Amino acid sequence: MSSPSSKIVELTPSNASQTVPSVPRPLPELLYGYPKNTPMPWRERIRNFTPAWFYVTMGLAISSLQPIGIPWHHELLVLRVLFLIFWLATLLVIIAFIGLTVARYIMFPGMWRRVLDHPDEAMYLACFPMTLIPMENGMSEGIYLWYGFAGRNSVKWLWFTFACWVATTVLGYILAFIMFRKMVTVHMHDMKSMTGAWLSPFGALIVDGSAGSLMLPLLAAHNKSIAMFAALWSLMTLIIGFSVCCLILAILLQRMFVDGLPPAKHIWTSWSPLSVMTQTGFTLIAICGGFNDLLPVHYGKSAFLTNPAAGEVILGIGIAVGMCLWMISIVCLIFAIFAVWAVHRREGLIFGPNCWAWVFPFGVWAFHTYGLGLYLDSQFFRILGGILSIVTMLLCAGMAIITIPPFFKGTMFNYSYVVDDEAMGVVYSHKVDTSAVETSEKAA
After folding, report:
1. What is the pTM of this model?
2. So what's the architecture of 40-416 in CATH?
3. What's the mean pLDDT when you consider all of the chain?
């Protein structure tokens, strides 16, 4: 068996210009010398530790919020304990994954740039801020409300959570801009290689808006000016992320109509449209509910903001749009299940971190349903939301049980986009600035 390093093709200027963008390939049986289900040494596990591993923490984080979304006996100790177990487990896993990520880029110099320049793996960097947002929701809704952390000075914990949220949204904007720039100027794309992963950097902005929306009632109780800032900041972040995602969804639909479903390695990104729709619907309802608490204002001469009906109008619009997006989410859910099942029958699936991609969207759908039940006073949505929350926690626990053994055994690190493509001889060249080439030719 040849050594792994002997099969790696480095991204150097000399060979980058001679290669072409890759097209979907069958899943390789051998991964640079490591057969399937063969334990890897820790050095190779770290080398294969892609940003997609934060799908796991996203699933754990959204599951930690499900006890809050159960509408019956909300003050039961068992719900508080379940929340704390999931939340602390998520915190520990996040710390471990951050450590593995830092070790990857320290141990393998140049890996960070290759990840940023890769048209697939770079998209999953957005999973990190999407992991932090449910954790911050838990900090405000669970740690602050349920446990009254820090006692009499618990309001300081609320301000700390608010500061964490602002920092996370700034990180989300930075990543979205960097990925947009890379997609336009660096990444080589074609329609066949397009996947739902393109939604991730901009879908993260939608997720970023949700933590602020849930903090609005808590902030309003202490400072309405800061609460109004949080509401506007959340709404702006939501609208920017959702508008770009809608444009990308049109491209994704064209890709499926023309070229069919993505290959097995990328099929779990089919859950991304569900995440976009249901996260937008829930966040919009929460933001509009916050505006209803903040309006009308009792200063200034704005005919709208001082109108007693302003908050109710905004809330009505938010609930109507949120209901529409909930219905669209059902279509996205059915499509995601169909896509994974169809590709599983055609190619089979590799169990890896991407298999967790369904947990976060499903958990957000449960919370979206809970929000509709809360604002519509609907028993149907309450019961359905409670059932979905329980199912999310049970399935997440099941995923954790089947993930932990192969993770520590070293058989779950089955693919890394950068490492695998290099092993297969696929190197992605940068886009060529044709205007600069024409100018140099004319000068010559």
Report:
1. 0.85
2. Alpha/alpha barrel (1.50)
3. 84
